[in-house]
Write a structure and sequence with these properties.
Chain lengths: 254, 254
């Protein structure tokens, strides 16, 4: 099995090293990751400048390609230029920090997995619910189990698994929940400051809110020490509103 | 009515000027748009550097705020810092080039409208199916009509309208179709070159493919001179796969 491993925290992140460590037990791994931190770039791609590729060797067997672009760029150029044939699996992560609820729309980690799915490749995003993890033991056990179970149970084409892992010890993990994307959101604001040249500037600030109280929601499951597995896709159509919209726009015309 | 107008082509784009021109007939418009071209940035937001705001006056009454960030940043800072109260409507566009099928995941135009919807504001993205339009006559008539019809028919909270306008004369417009997100995709590749310092670099290239042949698909509708209106949302859950995934992950555990 050929596996493309990527992330959005950059090729020197601790998370991608741990993901690579598990992934290589399942097949031939090609690492293609951003040269620098690319959190919150969403599904951006680079069309206004060219990309550079650099070979990286972090030691302990970890070799890879750094790309001067976004996570989605990494998957695109990885498939087209860096793997000898189309990969069988795209893995993205381990992201340092969860990707839950509304906030997945900003995530480079999730976007990379979506990009794999756009090319018809089974793709999984892994995120750990901590900004300062002191152990990847739980994450590695979870990734091993998810990959083992999915070898014989491929998701339908175009469906990505968004896996979020609680920041707890392996013995405190309560189990796995298949969830829906919940309503977690980032309640942002802007902190106003003055630069040395007297100009106002603004830092985005804010905090994560999650009012969900159901283990079928991604955020609540993780908060309760369950691994959350959300099947997502990139067809954004709101089917349930189509007929009503037709009465507004089509009746008048046809 | 308070209307926030934004785009991804930047505040000096011809498209945002035309959108402003129609929008101001419906309410008080605040323009908040990127200072430069931000196509294909997807739903990126700026968290690793601060944002600057600059007041812009393009003449003919068009005044606005340029932001040193992404389209999603513009909507966030617009709502929090530049409108006196939460806007009643977010309009994004007119994008120079369509946003159809799979390709909407890369679109800054669509992301800006999604960002409005995340805040519970009715939001519409307008895109014109041409990279070199010589007239906005059709677009302006379409925007006028869409806004008029929607004044009394607000989409459900969280649903964005993705409106794509064919590049034809007003008299050649066949009508309006409420569509689903189709399968149009960008068949990308990478053009390899050598820079003056002898290093390889890669330009993303490729072409748009659209095999849909149904007027209920966004791309085919536009190709046939219909305005395509797709209701989209940002809940990416693939509900249809949840039960099967539960048999894989939950039965083993519970």
């Amino acid at each position: 099995m050929k596996i493309l491993v990527t992330n959005d925290d950059g090729i020197y992140s601790s998370g991608i090293y741990e993901l690579w460590n598990v992934a290589k037990e399942f097949g031939d791994v090609t690492v293609v990751a951003p040269s620098t931190q690319k959190s919150a770039v969403g599904h951006g791609i680079t069309i206004d400048k060219p990309l550079y590729i650099k070979q990286i060797d972090r030691g302990n067997g970890f070799k890879g390609n750094s790309i001067s672009g976004t996570p989605a760029d990494c998957v695109k150029i990885g498939i087209k230029k860096l793997t000898k044939s189309i990969p069988n699996l795209v893995l993205s992560g381990i992201n340092i920090g969860s990707n839950l609820g509304n906030n997945i729309i900003y995530s480079g980690t999730v976007a990379a997995a979506v990009e794999g799915a756009v090319s018809g490749i089974p793709s999984i995003a892994f995120s750990l619910d901590s900004f300062s993890p002191n152990s990847f033991a739980t994450s590695k056990a979870v990734i091993y189990k998810v990959l083992s179970l999915l070898l014989d149970n491929k998701p339908p084409t175009g469906t990505i698994l968004n896996v979020n892992i609680p920041n707890c010890k392996p013995e405190d993990l309560k189990g796995y929940r298949v969830t829906s994307q919940g309503k977690q959101y980032f309640d942002d604001n802007f902190d106003e400051r003055i630069d040395p040249r007297g100009r106002k500037y603004y830092w985005m600030t804010g905090k994560i809110n999650d009012d969900d109280e159901d283990l079928d929601c991604d955020g609540f499951a993780v908060k309760n020490n369950y691994v959350s597995i959300t099947p997502i896709n990139f067809d954004m159509t709101n089917i349930s509103y189509i007929n009503e919209l037709k009465t507004i726009f089509e009746n008048e015309e046809n």
